[in-house]
Amino acid sequence: MDLDKEVALVTGGGQGLGRAISLLYARHGAAVAIGDIDVDAAERVAREIRAGGGRALALDLDVSSLDSARRAAQEAIDAFGTVSVLVNSAIFARYGPIDDIQPDIVDRMLAVGLKGPLLMSRAVAPAMRSARHGLILNISSVVGLGGVAYSSGYAALKGGVDAITRSLAAELGPSGVRVNSIAPSAIPNEMSRRTLDSEGWEERRRRTPLGVLGEERDVANAALFLASPAARFLSGVILPVDGGFSSASMIADVDIASVQKSRAA
């Protein structure tokens, strides 16, 4: 899992999954450009990486702006020579019933979560094509893989992200560029804890075949593998990192906890 020849640009890298991926990439030798609309958060992560002896740069980045995307890509190239890994982790998410859908909220969700990966991919594609080497890694969700109530807007953008992944894998593959998605289940962190109460988290755990909730490190480890030479032949892949949740959730009203208990007995 040696990334010392890679330069990663991580959007939404100042917090949550983006932060976890940035830190792990740096620990494995990659230079990391941390892009975030909250540049102070990005700088905190960059300082943490540099304090550990790594190479890092904080970028003020609005992924919904092509000018901002291009500027961030160029700053990373100027600092480290190239961008060989792009992680599209920036997100703006809201949940609720269809009756509460607000056009301005949907517009912002799609601008960050769907247009953002397209614009960022456009910004880094020339450098990757020139080097005939690169990975674009989109952070998707199990919500894009199956029906989840009160998540129609979020499901729309994550389903779109998976479609982008497959299409860009076909388009950029001949230039040596791989494109993949990671589709996590709900991972307890600062953002997701605002959307589920303790009962909701217990229900998620109960319906996960492995019987535990995932952690940010689980997603980061998958991102590390996909950026490594070990994954050189993987492209167009939508990888669930969910303990089996997306498969089990297709079977209505299955009590996973009871199944596990009976199996153990």
From TrEMBL:
Keywords: Oxidoreductase. GO terms for molecular function: oxidoreductase activity, acting on the CH-OH group of donors, NAD or NADP as acceptor. The keyword RNA-binding does not apply. Belongs to the short-chain dehydrogenases/reductases (SDR) family. This is 3-oxoacyl-[acyl-carrier protein] reductase. It comes from Paracandidimonas soli.
